[in-house]
Amino acid sequence: MFERFTKDARDVVQGAVEHGEREGARTVGAEHLLLALLDREASRASFALAALGVAERKESVREALSEARRRGGLSRAEVDALAGLGIDVPEIVSRVEEAHGAGAMTGDRQGRGRRPGRRSFGRGAKDVLEGALRAAVGRRDGRIGDEHLLLALTVRPGVPAEVLADHGVTYESLRRVLYGEGTAQAG
């Protein structure tokens, strides 16, 4: 499938692997793809993010992803659902970090999370890559670009889609910016 990726899309995938390696993740996740997309300049995805106002708020996106990692990768919707069952995730995170140190749920503690070797792609990242293929095929685009990766991130439930939506990036807003499709929404 990677032979169908544009150079920009391949660079995003390589950047995601590098983000995963830097944080010592066992696998490359969807959040690493989003971090790599934030690093891009002069590409279709970076244009779309800038048009939607994310260029000035990249650090806010990174902080939101970091906070989700601290919660063990749970989205706010998942935290809220657990709270409805009487499970206080912030309290659990606090107790785990109290007992095992800051970052205990992320694997970032004092280099202990560093793992040598190649990172495989986790289910979330694989879903995004497959979604990008579907987006490109659905548009009858010959190649898979970084904009298709960004579109796929917005439709896969989880932390990256939640963080993007919180910053005004949805599937509909991306389609409008990238392809002039859909209707403009006030707000």
How are the elements arranged and paired?
Blueprint: H1 7-23, E1 27-28, H2 30-39, H3 44-51, H4 58-70, H5 76-84, H6 89-100, E2 120-121, H7 123-138, H8 146-155, H9 159-166, H10 171-179
Parallel strand pairs: 1-2
Helix pairs in contact: 1-2, 1-8, 2-7, 2-8, 3-8, 4-9, 7-8, 8-10
Structure characterization notes:
There is one protein chain. With 187 residues, the chain is mainly α. It has a domain at 2-69 and 119-179: Double Clp-N motif, CATH 1.10.1780.10. It is 60% helix and 2% strand. It has 10 helices and 2 strands, in the order αβαααααβαααα. The longest helix has 17 residues, at 7-23. The protein starts with 6 loop residues before the first helix and ends in an 8-residue tail after the last helix.
Q: What's this model, at a glance?
A:
Helices cover 60% and strands 2% of the residues. With 187 residues, the protein is mainly alpha-helical. The protein has a domain at 2-69 and 119-179: Double Clp-N motif (Orthogonal Bundle).
CATH topology of the domain at 2-69 and 119-179: Double Clp-N motif
SSE-based structural type:
mainly alpha
- Which whole number gives the mean pLDDT? 88
User: Which strand order does the major sheet show?
Assistant: 1-2
Q: Count the beta strands.
A: 2
Extract low-pLDDT stretches. Answer: 108-113
**The CATH top-level class label of the domain at 2-69 and 119-179:** Mainly Alpha
Q: Radius of gyration in whole Å, from Cα?
A: 17 Å
**Helix share bin:** 55-70%
Identify the overall geometry: globular
Distance between the termini: 39 Å
CATH architecture of the domain at 2-69 and 119-179: Orthogonal Bundle
